[in-house]
Design the sequence.
């Protein structure tokens, strides 16, 4: 209550200076209400009911979709980069066919085999749907290993994507658990004895093994509960975990971007002489360190230089982080010495600090300077 | 004016001359040891934790209960006592686990105790066909007088002791008794290399030596017969 008069006084003081503009700019209460009503009924009265637009405006679905799908990718991206999507497609296929197979399957030791033979031999397209699920399981394992090999040989598991590698390994383990639990469900001789053997391998683990096997089997021996337990793990628990982890995996891919193949060179830094060969593994920031006509750029300018260099050269990114770190630090020290001898500590000190700690710029880490720009 | 008005005001690096009582941190009222905001944060987290535990604990207990539950002791007659002799095994099939149909049946080789092996002639020996390597079904080969496993080549002698291949211990046995002239088979038990009865273990687990301690007893199994 105390504040109100003084605030009013302030507005009066402003009004005395440019009172005419204030009066024009400020709509009256009635005008604002009318405008709000018009906006509220706009879709319904003037352009039909735009449900998609309404949902989009409430959820920002287009924005999220654009951010996820319209990402810039590094130069050199090739067909090997589709292996992850292929694995995810197979997972979706397994989920869909699995849901429909469960409509005919009976998870009971006495009826499981009969229900499998029924759905395979008598249900329309049963053999095909079950075949997709059965062969898709093997295909998923193969694709996962190919995807993993691509990640390994392209060095895409390195900083800052270590966590995504770890999530991927957990996904691989969960997929093998799916294979193990799904193998029992047909309940033929092979299923049964394979599960017996797998359980006994589990049991032969030291100390916790016997209890773990008891947990899997739901008792000291294979029993009626074992099949329903495997079915529950195969149907509910593990697929849920896999779906959640795939979400995390994709989130990190979108957030961190992808790496260029190792044979793609880093972009030629701005200022480097055209004849100068930049060896693979040299950081983009090294460009700032190359003295052009004796001028050492300051830290504030160098950031612009990097972005420009990347835009000019495409999104090629180098994955050799350890080498890079060395290369970043070493020239900074050299520049430090030369500048000190020249008697210009003022321009040099922020430069050295900025280069010694790439993260201090607030931008993406060194090998991601391209991606960082892309995702912003 | 050399003396500052506020006696607690100090030059840099100088200790205050008068120690004032320390003011309580912002948001605290007198006598409180934590802010009200903190109290509510902790309380709501605690209530959430209790609610989560109320769901998770019963469910986990439900899932691990079979580890601590022992099934009913089951005996099944496999034939008249006169049918078995001490010289050779007779193959019998009986239901070890109920409720899973054919999958619950198992094969055992039964014979009378033989004085040749220091066994009571009135007792019956029932050797399980579950291989002590990974649980494949073994077969008694008459010509060799050995139990042979088809999976990985485990070989056991007439008594079920391991004589070759990957198994780590002799073949399991079943408890036996005679009721109404019928031989009955009961719970399974494992044996050491000296054929001493121990609590049943899964295939692949040692029953003797220091390795035995890697495989602690499970509450879901029956105690071994005394011998």
Sequence:
């Amino acid at each position: 209550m105390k504040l109100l008069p003084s605030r009013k006084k302030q507005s009066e003081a402003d009004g005395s200076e440019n009172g005419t503009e204030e009066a024009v700019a400020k709509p009256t209460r009635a005008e604002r209400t009318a405008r709000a009503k018009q906006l509220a009924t706009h879709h319904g009265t003037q352009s039909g009911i735009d449900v998609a637009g309404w949902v989009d405006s409430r959820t920002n679905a287009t924005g999220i979709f654009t951010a996820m799908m319209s990402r810039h990718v590094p130069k050199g991206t090739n067909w090997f980069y589709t292996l992850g999507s292929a694995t995810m497609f197979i997972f979706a296929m397994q989920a869909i066919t699995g849901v429909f197979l469960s409509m005919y399957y009976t998870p009971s030791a006495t009826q499981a085999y009969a229900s499998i033979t029924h759905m395979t031999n008598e249900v329309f397209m049963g053999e095909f749907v079950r075949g997709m699920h059965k062969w898709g399981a093997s295909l998923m394992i193969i694709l996962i290993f190919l995807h993993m090999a691509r990640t390994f040989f392209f060095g895409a598991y390195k900083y800052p994507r270590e966590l995504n590698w770890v999530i991927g390994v957990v996904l691989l383990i969960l997929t093998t658990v799916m294979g193990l639990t799904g193998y029992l469900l047909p309940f033929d001789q092979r299923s049964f004895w394979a599960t017996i053997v797998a359980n006994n391998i589990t049991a032969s683990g030291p100390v916790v093994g016997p209890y773990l096997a008891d947990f899997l089997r739901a008792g000291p021996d294979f029993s009626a509960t074992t099949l329903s337990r495997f079915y529950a793990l195969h149907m509910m628990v593990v697929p849920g975990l896999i779906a959640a982890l795939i979400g995390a995996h994709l989130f990190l891919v979108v957030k961190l971007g992808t790496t260029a193949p190792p044979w793609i060179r880093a972009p030629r830094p701005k200022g480097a002489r055209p004849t100068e060969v930049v060896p693979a593994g040299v950081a983009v920031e090294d460009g700032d360190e190359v003295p052009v006509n004796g001028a050492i750029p300051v830290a504030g300018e160098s950031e612009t230089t990097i972005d420009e260099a990347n835009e000019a050269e495409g999104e090629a990114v180098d994955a050799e982080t350890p080498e890079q770190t060395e290369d970043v630090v070493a020239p900074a020290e050299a520049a430090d010495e030369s500048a000190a001898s020249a008697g210009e500590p003022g321009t040099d000190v922020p430069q050295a600090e900025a280069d010694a700690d790439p993260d201090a710029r607030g931008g993406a880490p060194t090998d991601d300077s391209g991606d960082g720009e892309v995702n912003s | 004016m050399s003396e500052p008005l506020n006696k607690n005001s100090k030059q840099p690096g100088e200790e205050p001359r008068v120690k004032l009582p320390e003011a309580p941190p912002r948001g605290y009222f007198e006598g409180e040891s934590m802010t009200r905001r903190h109290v509510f944060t902790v309380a709501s987290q605690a209530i959430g934790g209790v609610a989560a535990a109320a769901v998770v604990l019963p469910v986990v207990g439900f899932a691990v209960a079979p580890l601590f539950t022992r099934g009913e002791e089951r005996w099944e007659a496999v034939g008249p006592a006169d049918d078995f002799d001490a010289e050779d095994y007779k193959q019998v099939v009986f239901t070890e686990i109920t409720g899973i149909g054919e999958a619950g049946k198992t094969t055992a080789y039964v014979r009378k105790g033989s004085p040749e092996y220091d066994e009571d002639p009135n007792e019956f020996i029932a050797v399980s066909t579950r291989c002590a390597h990974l649980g494949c079904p073994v077969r008694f080969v008459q010509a060799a007088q050995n139990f042979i496993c088809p999976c990985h080549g485990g070989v056991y002698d007439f008594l079920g002791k391991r004589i070759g291949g990957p198994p780590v211990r002799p073949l399991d046995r079943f408890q036996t008794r005679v009721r109404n002239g019928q031989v009955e088979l009961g719970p399974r038990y494992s044996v050491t290399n000296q054929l001493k009865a121990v609590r049943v273990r899964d295939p692949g687990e040692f029953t003797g030596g220091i390795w035995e301690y890697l495989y602690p007893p499970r509450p879901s199994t029956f105690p071994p017969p005394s011998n």
